[in-house]
Design a protein that fits this description.
By secondary structure, the chain is α/β, with parallel strands linked by helices. The protein has helices at residues 31-34, 64-68, 78-87, 93-98, 125-142, 156-169, 172-175, 204-214, 233-242, 249-254, 257-269, 301-312, 334-353; strands at residues 6-9, 36-37, 55-61, 107-115, 146-151, 182-187, 220-226, 245-248, 273-279, 317-323. The protein contains 13 helices and ten strands. The structure holds N-(iminomethyl)-L-glutamic acid and manganese (II) ion (2 copies). This is Formimidoylglutamase.
């Protein structure tokens, strides 16, 4: 048992495994074959130069926010299992062609931040874990990489935002008093803007709104997949006060794609950088059973993937994460496989664009 409330475990490369195919051509390439430990350059406040790998994975092995939010815990076990499902996926031909000879520079694993929230530890473990995680992702952004956080509960979102915020504070635009406008796009059945005396997995976007207000910055938040039966009227009231752009789960099912994509593009056009977060409970419980709070209705995986591609195509996504997988309730690793597919989609789109 570690003697601190928050610890970091380095990348365990022995978990990057998959099929061996000695009789196939060299194009039978998998992510497990090219992942490397993430390289943190200590001299690194080299603004936006490519010092580490292009993509950095970092786990947020923490479900204290879910516990505080009266949810069912277990999400802390997800990061290595999402990695494992992703490791076994093939690298698509377009990426192999594009990065011929440089595949080993694409993907770094920065290990996991652990939040040890048992009775032996002080109350503020979650907040410490968020800060430790934020420092890691901020460093990656400053090295010119795209960090992708693997939750853990959705309390990861406040850490992801803080990491992005810290990195943006170092940019020339910010020092010239011209802060980039941050847009947050969250795929989620829940708004996660709860009022509470402590941070939880249900509060991160309200915390972000307060952080931005304290800095005199606008709050641009678009939540896609919101369910009218997973959020109270009090939450919808707060969403209205905060100017949240809501695309409901029913809109996703019933409205024409063209209309939805126009709404997303209008949101994107109003911001300079995007933090993209996917709470896996945006999908139906039949597709993703292993989450903290399963959705009865949910939005289609095909819809989520198409929308993620459209958001990534903006070239504005500087931070991303995938949250709320809870392996305790998964069936045959189905939920981890869906998370891995969305992770692959984000990575492929980013690498094909940059
Ligand atoms: N991060 C998710 N939060 C949801 C959980 C809802 C539930 O437990 O039913 C929320 O607070 O709304
Ligand atoms: Mn949710
Ligand atoms: Mn959520």
């Amino acid at each position: 048992m570690p003697d601190t409330a928050v610890s970091h475990s380095a990348a365990d490369m022995s978990r990057w495994t998959g099929r061996a195919e000695p009789f196939e051509s060299a194009r039978a390439r998998y992510w497990y074959q090219i992942a490397q430990p993430y390289t943190f350059d200590s001299s690194s406040q080299q603004k936006s130069q490519q010092n580490g790998q292009r993509i950095g994975l970092v786990g947020f092995a923490c479900d204290q926010g879910v516990r505080r939010n009266q949810g069912r815990v277990g999400a802390r076990a997800a990061p290595p299992l999402i990695r494992q499902a992703f490791a076994a996926l093939p690298i698509i031909a377009e990426l192999q062609q594009r990065y011929d000879g440089q595949l080993s520079t694409l993907l770094g694993d920065a290990g996991d931040i652990h939040c040890h929230d048992n009775d032996d530890f002080a109350e503020r473990t979650l907040e410490q874990a968020q800060l430790t995680y934020a420092d890691k992702v901020s460093h990656m952004i400053q090295q010119g990489g795209l960090p992708i956080g693997l939750g853990g509960g959705h309390a990861i979102a406040y850490g992801s935002f803080l990491g992005l915020w810290q990195a943006l504070q170092q940019t020339d635009a910010t020092s010239n008093n011209n802060s980039p406008r941050i847009g947050i796009i969250n795929f989620d059945a829940h708004l996660d803007i709860r009022q509470s005396d402590v941070a939880t997995s249900g509060t991160p976007f309200r915390q972000i709104a307060e952080h931005l207000a304290a800095q005199d910055q606008p709050f641009h938040y678009c939540c896609i997949g919101v369910s009218r039966l997973s959020n109270t009227a009090a939450l919808f009231d707060r969403a209205e006060q905060l100017g949240v752009h809501i695309i409901s789960d029913e809109d996703c099912a019933n409205k024409k794609w063209k209309k939805i994509v126009a709404q997303i593009e209008t949101f994107i056009n109003d911001v300079d950088v995007i933090y993209l977060t996917i709470d896996m409970d945006c999908l139906p419980a039949s597709v993703v059973p292993g989450v903290s709070a399963p959705a009865a209705y949910g939005i289609n995986l095909a819809f989520v993937e198409r929308a993620v591609k459209c958001i990534m195509a903006s070239g504005k996504v500087k931070m991303a994460d995938i949250a709320e997988i809870n392996p305790t309730f998964d069936i045959d690793a189905r939920s981890c496989k869906v998370a891995a597919r969305l992770l692959a989609t984000i990575i492929e789109q980013h690498l094909l664009l940059t």
